[in-house]
Specification:
single chain
Amino acid sequence: MTIFLSSESQAAVREAAERLRAWRQEGLNVALIYGPVSAEDRLYHSLCPPGQLSATALSEALDDIGVRWNILDPCDPDFIARLSTYDVALSNLHGEFGEDGRLQGLLDYLRIPYCGSGVGASAVATDKILCKRMMVSLGIPTPSWQVWSEGPAPWNGHPVMVKPPLGGSSVNMSLVRERDDLLKALTKAAGTEGGPVLVENYLPGVPVTVGLLELPGDSVVMFPPLATEAMEAEFYDADTKLDADSQGRVNVQVAEMTSEVRDRVAEYARNLWIGLGLRGSARIDFILGKDEQVLEVNTTPGMSRESNFAVGAALVGLTHSDVVLAMLYEALARPPYDVPLPTPALSSPIVTREAAVSP
């Protein structure tokens, strides 16, 4: 049974951290998967200074832990052949082909242990529409929404958030306050493929995020809820999250809330962890207004030194290296693969085709 720890469970968190720091795998070879695959990752790859990238912070943490590692770019033709030679995979990919279960399925087929949630949890959490439906089934409050794919733009006279169902960092997301702006926002969110779009009622309030990290001993520590206030934007948009010029356009601090609200937030986070079958690490985003409602679930939290996840970990006494060590421990502590699949033969050249759109 999973034991959930809070910032008040200081002794238990310290004990788990000590077990982590004492755990070492001599000669462990880690594949750090990072590259410009999804629209979100292409944005960070092209605009974000190297020092602000999660991949940079993860590289430094792996050095600190003392394991061997290399960055593997999934855009390279020899990616799969190289991947099969590593002991464990740590992915820093977000959105499509990284966080949505497809990479996890490949790793399962290759029988390579990997950090984080499996295929099913990754696929459902990443798809905002599917995740909303799961929240409803679990009895977790979330803003009302509609799904648009074509035809008249759904307008109920109130502001809405228009979101692509896949991807993160608020890429191609819009806050729409007037009917005349809705169709443009829908077209932007649908992209060139014209897929379904999530149209979610906009709820004013304080954006709050809660990180969860699996630790040894079947325990999951829940970081203190953090309030994220955008200083120069209507909402926590892509430019604010990117912060490419290091202007610090978002203020992050421990959220002020009553003990009753904190308990409900923790309850919703626990229920989503269990209900979705999450593992390793996750970040759950809320909006706190008249009540508490869940917006999204992230199965691959940003891991830069200044990320919300890293800030939350520090508040319970965990360093960035502790977090990465916990992720590796969880991946390697799972039962080994034991399925009747052949060992993949990768000596033949892999046929590739050009992408439908350029990066």
